Amino acid sequence: MKTILSVISILLIIFINGCSNNRNEVVVYTSVDQVFSEPVLKDFEQQTGIKVKALYDTEETKSTGVLNRIIAEKNNPQCDLFWSGDPVRAIVLKNKNISFPYNSKDAEDINPVYRDPENYWTGFSARARVLIYNKKLLEEKDVPQSVFDLTNKKLKGKFAIANPLFGTTTFHIAALFTLLGDEKAKQFLADLKKNKVVIATSNGDVKKRVMQGEVFCGLTDTDDAFEAAKEDTNIGFVFLDQNGIGSLVIPNTVNLIKKSPNQNNAKLLFDFLLSKKTEAKLAKLCAQMPLHKGVQVPKDVPSLDNIVPMKINFDETATELEKIQPFLKKWLNN
Amino acid sequence: MNNNIKFINFFNGHKFFAAVYLFFFLFIILPVFYIFANTFLFDNSLVSNIKQLDKNTFLLLLNSSIVAFVVSLFATFIGSVLGFLLYKTNLKYKGFFKILFLIPLLISPYILAVAWKDFFSVFFQNAKIISSYFGVVLVQVFIYTPLAMIIVGNAFTNIDAHLEESGLLITNVKDVILKIELPLIKPAIFSSFVLIFIFTISGFSVPAFFGIRVFTTEIFTQFSAFYNHSLAILQSFLLVAVCVFLLLTESKYISNASFLSVGSKGTNKKLFPSNNTHILFLTIWFLISVILPFITLVVQSFSKGTSDIIKAFDLLESAVGNSIGFALLASALIVIVGFVAAYYSNTQTKSSSNFFDWSLLIVFTIPSIVFGIALIKFYNRVVFNFIYSGYAIIVIAYVGKFSFIASKIIGNAIKQIPQSLDEAAQIEGISFYSRIKNILLPLILPGIFASFIIGFIFSFGELGTTIMVYPPGKEIMPIKVFTIMANAPLALTSSMTLIVLSVTIFMIAILYSVSKIFMKNYGFYND
User: Fold this and answer.
1) Residue B158 has pLDDT above 80, yes or no
2) Intervals of chain A under pLDDT 50
3) What is the pLDDT of residue B486?
4) Which residues from B are below 8 Å from A229, CB to CB?
5) Does ipTM exceed 0.85?
6) Is CATH 3.30.70.1520 what the domain over B59-300 is classified as, yes or no?
7) Interface membership of A92 toward B (CB under 8 Å)
8) Between A18, A33, A96, which is nearest B487 by CB?
9) CB distance B227–A56 less than 8 Å?
10) How many domains does chain A contain in total?
11) Does A19 contact B391 at a Cβ distance shorter than 8 Å?
């Protein structure tokens, strides 16, 4: 008995002391998929010698686990920097008074549209919302070119969107509300419902359903679309509404957390993430589109110069998002 | 008042027990009470949140209860049949089946849901049928049937053979099973039903994956879409209330049941003859519940040769040691907490032991994400940084989540020991700790090992709470699988799952072998 208890006590001490107190470190929480974010963070470690302690999110928690954790840790922040896959979460932190402004020199030539006017968050490497389709099931001429084509009867029950309460889909719908106004946007959602839209659990699930032929097409993000096209040549994708309202462009965002323990290192990582080097890496890893001019990217990565973006204000869209969420929940459950 | 005095006296006399109780109370119960108290007493939004608990909320809770009821019914029924065939007949290779049938319980529910959906997509080109209530029920029945099999099977083992033999003298096998065995194992059947109900109603992964709205997905939505932690905690409280109500109703059965009891000492087992129908049933169940998802994982893992398996191994290599270490340490603590709770429950008056029992149950019942938030809100302060920023928080989470199961397993092992043994030793003047060490522990060794192994399995695969509390920069196997799988090719995800599964089975085999050696030394035969 005594031996067992002694072993347990020793193990406990080892585990408790397992946490290092090395302060040449930075703690980053990210909602960006680990397969894409980890290589970038490793580059930072190599370049600066600063140890990066990262916390990644999971598909199971719809990539909201780390954000919830930052909110729950508000009174004693552990996280120095939050790298988000979209501006929504960054704006949530700003509104909850958890982040603080930082004006990075690397943000100077980034289009102000992709930056918070008060520098609470800054955007870099962007994705866009696209329509992914299965070439075996949908002929080229029938591929929708506008998000509004999804109400066409030809696609009844044959197209998918991810759960509109989460991630980039919720932001996409909020953007439509700001552009179209409440009445038209609600009518559009009613029409989608009438056309038997399939609700997938995530953008990754939309991709999978299209690849497996369960639906003809669906809305997802460029990184999912590129992955799918790489895995299966029968998968294609289009940027929607290039002759109309444009495609929603969603930058990654970075913000610094108030009262966090390693703020100087966090600022270095902030600058690193906004650098052209990081944008080039993300373009190579997951076809994300650089926001800086003159970044070397692989041939198949589109340039933002060639895409008509949706003209929205991210702050206004985030406010709209908060407003429409109860409606979206009802829409989803009815 | 009288009970409180007894409670204090008991722990006054037994310092080690008091220390364990204090550990559990301070480290695990307090954080949970803290967030409930915060929500109910100090949260300004309580009134508005209560207003949101409308008819739809309760309908959804009812809906989830119905799903949990159906899952529990099917899983308990099939598990009882399997338990009978594997523990009560003279079937060949039943030891082999007993271990293989456990596999669905060892795989993360989320991964199993993915495998089943892929199976329908790959072989039927249609996953719609499974992305429904049918899928939620089907997958969870597969997951929890092994649990019912263990509980009911072990109850069958503990039936006194003399009763069966007497019955057989006057009637046939069918009547003996229906009129003698079934009434005797009824408490175990209820126990199995209740435990599966609790697992199902508080489970999130499977319904969320299939896009089916249940109460836990609603709680998750409040957390993750609306960031309304208070409402989510309030809703969790309702969930806990349902489970507590269920357990109160069934407490008569639980308290007397050979619930999760293991081992076969002291009984002469009466084995019934098996026939081809039995073998056919076992084979069909084996093919459906184990082989099909397993084949799906293997086919996907090797779809591009061995490259994905090698890559998966590289990715997980660094996390294997950590995960095994935490799970082993947590299992040891789970056994200690479970033992103290069980000993106290079984030797003290019912009412005075209630608090410990219900505390264990509440922590077991609350959704993982809520428990995670409770731990964060309580421990994330400067004074507790040594816990929160290190590995200790993970161990605390595991111990909190799974001590309830250990207390029940060990409790039932203790129930099988005649109290006269302890009393005789007491009269001889043998000290309390000597009696525990030299009399009780050796006699309940199978229960201790079973708790350790089950604690290890659950801790090793725990995700919901770990994702909320694991320290930045540390790697743990299930977390790594889930963080990588978000955008990894299917083949890589399946390969990682296969590796996790292999490591789990390997560790169970080692623990099982160690337990066998130990128990042989103490004169047990391990079934």
Assistant:
1) no
2) 19-20
3) 64
4) none
5) no
6) no
7) yes
8) A33
9) no
10) 2
11) yes
